[in-house]
Amino acid sequence: MVYFDLVLLHAPSIYDFREKSLLAGPISDVVPSSPVFEMYPIGLTSIADYLERFGLKVKIINIANRMLMDPSFNVENKLKKIKAKAFGIDFHWLPHAHGSIELAKIVRKLHPNKPIIFGGLSATYYHEELIKYPFIDFVMRGDSTEKLILTLIDEINNGSNVFSGIPNLTWKSEDGEVHVNPLTYVPDNLNEFDVPGYRYTIKSVFKYLNYKDPLPYNGWLQYPNTAILTARGCTQGCLICGGSKIAYKQNCNRPRLALRSPEKLVEDIIFIQRFSRAPIFILHDIRQGGKEYVDEFLGRLKNIKLKNELVFELFQYANEKFFQKINEAVPKYSMELTLETHDEDIRRYNGKFRCTNKKVIDSLNYALKHGCAKIDLFFMVGIPEQDYASALKNIEFVEEIHNACNQDKRLSYFVAPLAPFLDPASPAFENPDLHGYKKFCLTLEDHREAIKAPSWKYMLSYETNAMSRDEIVNSTYESAKLLNEFKYKYDLISELTYNDVNNKIDASMKYIDQIDKIMALPEAERADSLAEIQKEIEGINEYSICGENELKWEVKKNYANFISLTMVGMELLIEDIAINLKRKFSKV
After folding, report:
1. CA dist 469 to 50, 120, 151, 260, 480, Å?
2. Residue 407, Cβ neighbours under 10 Å: how many?
3. Edge to edge, what strands does the sheet with 6-10 contain?
């Protein structure tokens, strides 16, 4: 049996989701994860990769995905067999407020003498609350913790327990006293780390003889999307985003963007296409790095034999020259744009696409003209200054866009609510009165309780000056219905998808009303009433306001080459053995 230096665990949003009645609604319809949010943050892989470079043994177990893949999967039996010197649990996204803490309780029960470490953006924000839990020993703060985790594990392994010199660490001494070390480690580039650490992930399958544990999300083997991170931090100041420039400054003490160099990005792409033909998502707008950064990245792409489709993000208007450059460098590419609203004034206020609607349409036409294979446009309900009528007008703007772009079927449209929570550290969260929000959840415990609510309406941690919770929910479903009608009218979806989405929206609205009535019952009667409709609800929890395949990019039939994957894995394993042998003999 392998004795690990660190085991990294990813929890479901709600730990006991398999037993709880829950109408999650559309909170995860436009992300790869299910409502369980089983996709773990890519930082887990970069931490594991970095530690293994120094001879440590690290294992990632996606507990959430294992529970989804197998209804009979027993978490405690799995964890009981693990031998580790320390356990790490990510708390990056706030919807994991319940699951991550419940998982930590189980780990402490099964391994009472092993330290438990938390990390991630939400852990950073709520570090002072987290450290008060008796089963949490350390919270590593900040957005780049690879080196710091290595130092912490070394201290744990050495038994010296001298933690006062580790930057960014919140910790408890043996007498229970809480210590908060200064948050001073903020690297200004990412070249030292593999983000994500795909080399580690593939190697670990062969090294530790388990392919299920590190799978990123349910269905990855059938549709193995990958992503590369261009930067940590952001240049944008969006009011509702916990990853905005303002939020990173407050939460992570990050004054500026930390970029991964174009050279490293292209190395990542070359490696990924050795084992996958699925699209590679380029996370963040590459223009954040400046013109020279964009030119170098696209120039390097020209010089390789690029086989995979690349998916780029846009944060603001782009001129025709930008798309010409991409088209010259990339054989096949697509785009993602989060417009949020048709309203130019709201966009300017909120920070995303601070330009006219004409410029939005110009950007889309330039992309279509210069070879873009697919464009996904996302609209949102619940943003600052948006009222019910404005939310519905998004669909009118969708039709305006579609006609202005010659009804091009490469355009895909989505609407989703800002749900379930306002992002901590975002300007809207920190200054709700200023930006038109009323917060229902302030503390970590508030969010832990909210995520367990029986419908997403009761999970919502906010309402706005312009819309109540009921109006946010109703305008989301009404917008989704209008969008579904639009897609069918313009032959963007099949009749089967149209009917399926309509039926799910109708059913969702029915259950929203039904749960409202149950919530009005005496508390003693609620659990039984919710349990009665649990099985019915399960069928509408995923893709409740859009078609199941609408977000997917077409891939070749043999998209995942398992022979190549095995060859890559064995190559990395041999390399790992050689490095560790060299390290071992150098110490002799």
Report:
1. 44, 28, 45, 40, 17
2. 12
3. 58-62, 6-10, 87-90, 116-119, 138-140, 169-172, 178-180
Using a pLDDT cut of 90, give the percent of the chain over it.
80
Per-residue 3-state assignment (H helix, E strand, C coil) for 309-356:
CEEEEECCCCCHHHHHHHHHHCCCEEEEEEEECCCHHHHHHHCCCCCC
**pLDDT tens sequence across 533-547:** 887 787 777 777 887
* The length of the chain, given as a count of residues: 588
Q: Is the dihedral of CA 513, 514, 517, 521 positive or negative?
A: negative
Residue 412, H or E segment: strand 411-417
Q: Which residues of 71-102 are buried (b: 16+ CB within 10 A; e: fewer)?
A: eeeebeebbeebebbbbbbbbbbbbbbbbbbb
User: Residues 74-108: pLDDT tens digits?
Assistant: 999 999 999 999 999 999 999 999 999 999 999 99
Neighbours of 565 (CB within 10 A): 18
Q: How far apart are CA 198 and CA 560, in angstroms?
A: 14
Return d(Cα 319, Cα 1) in angstroms, integer.
57
Whole-angstrom distance, CA of residue 334 vs CA of residue 460: 32
Report the largest interatomic distance among the alpha carbons of the chain, rounded to a whole angstrom. Answer: 74
C-beta neighbour count of 236 within 10 angstroms: 17
Burial of 305 (0-12, 13-18, 19+ CB in 10 A): exposed
Q: Is the pLDDT of residue 18 over 50?
A: yes
The DSSP line for 427-491 is HHHHSTTTTTEEES--SHHHHHHHTTSSBHHHH--EEESS--HHHHHHHHHHHHHHHHHHHHHTT
Letter for the amino acid at 430? Answer: E
- C-alpha span between 280 and 544 (Å, rounded): 26
pLDDT for res 21? 63
Tokens 């009761």, residue located: 458
Query: Which residue has 């099949």 as its token pair?
Result: 494
Output the pLDDT for position 302: 96
pLDDT at site 532 = 83
Residue 447 has, within 13 A of its CA and on its CB side, a CA count of: 27
CA distance 409 to 412: 7
* Contact predicate 395/487, CB 8 Å: no
- β-pairing, 116-119 vs 138-140, is parallel
Proportion of the chain in helix, strand, coil states, percent, rounded to 5: 45, 15, 40
pTM over 0.90: yes
- Phi and psi at 576, nearest 5°, equal -65, -45
Q: Which of 232, 223, 101, 326 is nearest to 559 (CA)?
A: 223
Task: List, edge to edge, every strand of the sheet that includes 333-340.
Answer: 226-229, 280-283, 310-314, 333-340, 375-381, 411-417
| DSSP structure string for 157-185 | HHT----TTSTTEEEE-TT--EEE-----
pLDDT in tens, 294-339: 999 999 999 999 999 999 999 999 999 999 999 999 999 999 999 9
- d(Cα 120, Cα 579) in Å, to the nearest integer? 30
Question: What mean pLDDT value characterizes the chain?
Answer: 93
Q: Which domains does the chain have, with CATH numbers?
A: 3-191+573-587 (3.40.50.2300), 224-538 (3.80.30.20)
